[in-house]
């Protein structure tokens, strides 16, 4: 009955101080797309439909073995363990205790043991038992702490997903650059061969007096310039191969054999985007991470606010205590202690309220981070859509130019076989075609890279289970 007044406080445990999290409204987050977009379900893993087994293997390997992904996985496990530790601290805590000590009391202390017959100042003391405690969460401070820890675990999971999407996008981008460089290398080698042939013909004409020295010098310079482009593309191919090895968590030489053979650039599948651009906010992991951090910071305010109020706990201890080991298990050696406790920081020089202000400031900062993430996601998606559309327009024009150059080259070949044009005219047509082919190839690579960037901006790249 002595603890009855304290037990009457238990219904107050439903009280939770501090603000409840509400998603802030960001200007523009519910707007429509600025331009015309193809509406439809977003393909989260479009690279699976590009009919390129090497690309699929690279991405699946990187998603599992990339060092940044593995580190993010470790941080997620840490955050989840922290959440479980905070949750475990909210319930009753029971500890086993035990001690065996030799003691001596001062004969000149408050208890004059030296003057009491039969009481020796020296004695052994053996103790074994259990201690228990349970803080009654009247104001919800512990519940807010559990909320905060859970939301930080959610943030860590979203950050893991963000790292994985970045890795997938970087692998796809680097692979596109690799295949693009291989295509460019074949073109520049063909162009260098044509330029060498042209330079040789003009040298013959110069030596026979049919061409000027200026023409010979220009042709030789063009041939050398074309030759000089070859090592650069060879280095780009090697650099992309080494980069893919790093992204997949392997040594630089790991993919040399698989990627040394020239292969065409993958063709991206048809693109579709959400009907409302705000839909990407629910899919982008960076936005989800920012929101989870804001929610955690909001819960922290409640945790600090609960420190303004008294803390009530139930304490208990039971065990056996004796001066001789043989008496330790006697019923006369039983000891126990039960009852409530109160702790209330009624004077702390403003420390508690300062901690609350600090938590509120951190929540305000997290809200700014969330707003920045939302606006950044909207800006990224609009920019990526615009660049992808521009890249498509450019590739259409350059493909048309390439087709015209191919027609001109075919006509030049016919005229050469008919004896209407000399070989120099044919080689010049070949050079012009190579230039158009190179520009079109570069534009195709640009479309692929823009597609990869747009997929990432829309929150795609890897389907999270």
Question: Could you please describe the fold and organization of this structure?
Answer:
This protein is of the alpha+beta class. It has 2 domains: 14-90 and 141-309 and 354-457, Outer membrane efflux proteins (OEP) (Up-down Bundle), CATH 1.20.1600.10; 92-136 and 312-343, Outer membrane efflux proteins (OEP) (Single Sheet), CATH 2.20.200. It is built from 9 helices and 4 strands; from the N terminus they run H-H-H-E-E-H-H-H-H-E-E-H-H. The chain has a 4-stranded antiparallel beta sheet with strand order 1-2-3-4, with no helix packed on it. Helix 8 runs antiparallel to helix 9. It is elongated, with a radius of gyration of 38 Å. The two termini are 54 Å apart. Residues 1-9 have low confidence and may be disordered.
Determine the structural class based on helices, strands and strand pairing. alpha+beta
Q: Indicate the CATH architecture of the largest domain.
A: Up-down Bundle
Strand content: 5-15%
- Please list the strands of the largest sheet in the order they lie side by side: 1-2-3-4
Largest sheet: 4 strands, antiparallel
Corresponding CATH superfamily of the largest domain: Outer membrane efflux proteins (OEP)
**What is the fold-level CATH name, i.e. the topology of the largest domain?**
Outer membrane efflux proteins (OEP)
Give, in order, the helices and strands.
Answer: HHHEEHHHHEEHH
Query: What is the share of helical residues?
Result: 55-70%
CATH uppermost class of the largest domain: Mainly Alpha
Morphology:
elongated
DSSP helix count?
9
User: Which spans of ≥5 residues are poorly predicted at pLDDT below 50?
Assistant: 1-9
End-to-end Cα distance, whole Å, is: 54 Å
Radius of gyration: 38 Å
